[in-house]
């Protein structure tokens, strides 16, 4: 009898252990399933939010009413996706057209000071900012954005080989801006001639950039 009782107790203990383990497994699986559902829900809302921001952005750049467009862009500017950057760049373009250059400069600086922005995006934005302000400086000689132009050029990452030629071209254009704004004799400006030679002999500089630089060089020599 004692043997039977011991055997029964043994099986009861095993059954109890299995039941307890099953309960634990069910709880774990339930928690994992719940986490999976939460993740799927989160991804759904992220996709919906991105889609919504995409629609809003293209609406902002296509409507004629500037006040409504600016309102949409301001909302997108506070989002946490790529459309926040696009909206800021669109706001910058609008202010360039409206000749709000001080605001444009501030907006570019705020954008480039964003620590979450990847280096390649900073380099691309800094390149555009430098080109824009070189053009602004040439059109408006009374302004003084040379230091800002230098700062934008310095942000361009030397490790990004595709931007080496762009960086050199921007440095050359910045010198040309100084030549034009200060009535400097290009032929006697050693810094300009030396940089021209560096660009033309550099294998990392594209033929398109070399052609543009060469045309400016020849114009400055024979104007």
Which helices and strands occur, and which strands form pairs?
Blueprint: H1 2-62, H2 66-77, H3 82-97, H4 101-112, H5 119-139, H6 146-155, H7 164-182, H8 190-201, H9 207-222
Q: What does this 3D model show about the protein?
A:
By secondary structure, the chain is mainly alpha-helical. The chain has 2 domains: 1-74; 99-223, no CATH class. It contains 9 helices and no strands. Helix 3 runs antiparallel to helix 4 and helix 6 packs antiparallel against helix 7. Mean pLDDT is 74; it is low at 36-63.
Average pLDDT works out at 74
Which ranges are low-confidence, i.e. pLDDT below 50, for 5 or more consecutive residues? Answer: 36-63
Global Rg? 31 Å
Helical stretch count? 9
Number of β-strand runs: 0
How would you classify the helix and strand content by structural class? mainly alpha
> What would the principal axes of the Cα set say about the shape?
globular
Distance between termini? 119 Å
Sheet-strand content, in percent, reads under 5%
Approximate helicity band: over 70%
Helix and strand element order: HHHHHHHHH
Number of domains: 2
């Amino acid at each position: 009898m004692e043997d039977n009782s011991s055997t029964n107790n043994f099986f009861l203990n095993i059954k109890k252990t299995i039941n307890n383990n099953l309960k634990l497994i069910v709880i774990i699986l339930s928690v994992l399933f719940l986490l999976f559902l939460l993740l799927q829900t989160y991804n759904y809302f992220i996709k919906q939010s991105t889609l919504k921001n995409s629609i809003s952005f293209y609406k902002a750049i296509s409507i004629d009413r500037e006040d409504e467009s600016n309102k949409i862009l301001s909302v997108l500017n506070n989002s946490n996706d790529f459309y926040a950057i696009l909206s800021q760049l669109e706001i910058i373009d609008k202010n360039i057209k409206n000749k709000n250059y001080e605001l444009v400069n501030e907006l570019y600086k705020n954008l480039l000071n964003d620590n979450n922005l990847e280096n390649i995006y900073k380099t691309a934005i800094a390149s555009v900012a430098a080109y824009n302000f070189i053009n602004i400086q040439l059109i408006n000689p009374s302004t003084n954005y040379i230091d800002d132009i230098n700062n934008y050029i310095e942000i361009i990452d030397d490790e990004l080989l595709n931007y080496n030629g762009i960086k050199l071209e921007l440095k050359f254009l910045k010198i040309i801006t100084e030549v034009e704004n200060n009535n400097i004799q290009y032929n006697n400006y050693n810094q300009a001639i030396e940089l021209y030679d560096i660009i033309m002999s550099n294998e990392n500089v594209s033929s398109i950039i070399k052609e543009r630089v060469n045309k400016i060089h020849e114009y400055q020599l024979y104007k």
